[in-house]
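Appendix B: complex inputs.
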Amino acid sequence: MSQPVSAASAAPSVPSGLGLRPSARAWRRLKQNHLARAGLVVVMLVTLACFLLPAVLRLDATTTHPALRHQPPSAAHWFGTDGLGRDFAARVLLGGQSSLLVGLVATLTCVLIGVLYGAVAGYYGGRVDEVMMRFVDFMYGIPYMFLVILIMLMFSESARGNPVPVFVALGLVEWLTMARVVRGQVLSLREREFVLAARLLGAGDFRVIVRHIVPNVLGVVTVYATLTVPTVIILESFLSFLGLGLKLSWGQLVSEAVGVVNPIAFFWWLLAFPSGFLALTLLSLNYVGDGLRDAVDPRGQR
Amino acid sequence: MSATEVLAVVGGVAALAGASWLPARAARVMGALCGGLVAFGVARAAFGLGAGLAGAAVFAGLLARYAPGTVLRRLTFLVPSLVLLVFVTTLLMYHAPGSPFAGEKVMSAQVEAALRAHFGVPKSAVEFFGIYVRRLVVEGSLGPSVKVQGRTVEALLGPALPVSVTLGLLALLLAAAFGLVLGILAGLKPSSFSDYASTGLSALGLSLPSFVIGAVLMVVFALKLGWFPVAGWGTFRQLVLPSVTLALPYAAYIARLARGGTIEVMNEDFVRTARAKGLSESAVVLRHALKGAILPVVSFLGPAAAGIMTGSFVVETLFGIPGMGQWFVRGAINRDYSVVLGTALVYASLVTAFNLAVDLAYAWLDPRIRSRP
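Resulting structure:
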């Protein structure tokens, strides 16, 4: 208001978006960010490819062909074949399915725990907050791989390769940052008038948290969730590398390829395709997350 | 989980939280006691019981007399956190299916009972915790390994600890140096070619698991060019590839933080003042901007140290390095309870000590925090 001149001169190039809902304004700003837009497109393409192509092209990831072991990429096998003569393109795409699923499900677990935990700690404040956050600090002090491996062990040997333990373990470890972020937001939100208004209208604590507080932190939560997905996918690949991960995922394929690195023959396609897909997806997700953060945070005028 | 176990965990967390409500005088005493306890553990391992006791008492006295209140308060968290860590890890180990004595041979109940008694691994987690803590405090021992016959955990970890620490410190140093240079160069000229190159590089570094980077480095520098050995430990040349592999993802993140910090600081009024009074650009950057630019990096060093230790599990496996990470992974898979607890304890102490050092460095760098009582 104090500087009408600069506001007017900025108006033609950057639509101010005033009068729109915050989410619509954020979406508009996100679309102006080239890297984030490209990232979004790439993530969608990779997801579609992983979930549709194997079915559409009738790719077979399991049949072994002893005569066709370690074939370089060709017209018949686009990504070559692995050490058992299986079609590597099919394996990369199917591996992508589970990597993306792990990213999604573990992130949802982490959002669920983190948002509730952070909201409760921030809303009640005081001693409750102190105790709850001290626990988060304690968990932060432990190298997370410990926890993941220990939680993975809670499930029986026969569940090895079963995705559920991996989802749970990664979600249980990654919620800490989410809880901290949400708690910080809620600490200031609970002082706002709409919370007071809701309480005066007779809403209980649970209703205030779920209906009034949580919707107001969803913007920040979306940003952190987007940035959690790549972290989780990388963590799963570490687990795979240590032999504790999924049966078939990008991380598992990469670690298999790393395992057959030797001085005599280098099967580059075994390393290049899964890690290429992995890097491309994570890079895109990181750009989308950064773009979202700039879009949601109005101060982020970098 | 039994009611006792749940109660114990809740009590532990409450004790942690309670430490922050201690009045200043009590926090000094408790902090000095906790510091003395830790010093006792270290000194006894090095010099034996009597000297350890004396050294620890002197150390605790010095702490109580001279250490700043914030340090002592942090120390009051240290011991309860470590105890809680051991307890939670014990619970997780005990509730995991399988036991260290489950093998291919069928064992009679008496034999198993005798083995459990011999290794101090009774059937219940609470009992085990009692034995473990008593052994730790009274005998100063991490206990016998359940799986590696005739060796104690300290005998296993003793040679592995320096290996992991060397690797981790070197990686941290590399990450900080490389990340700072890259990030500050990028932040000084936003939207220039060097900015795009550096942010692109760091984005890539963040998007690749370290073992992929390691494998590529291995193929290029060890197998094709032959500059460095493929794996192993002992010589300086064997140190290069693993520490670079371990450092790169953190260098990428540090570059990001340093870039953001630099951009922010260069827009500050005091930088404009420094320029206005005619300082050269290099003096502006080195004397005035650098400190502000590295603040966010310093606060990240604590988590980075924890992350690098975790990352070392993978890198040690990849390069065949005889460090602690391998003992933890092997111990966890074999249900070697005492090895897992020993590694957890050592790692957590290292991380906590490092975090404390980082906080002190941060307070020294940022006068706003230093002046706070």
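The two ends of chain A are 22 Å apart (CA to CA).
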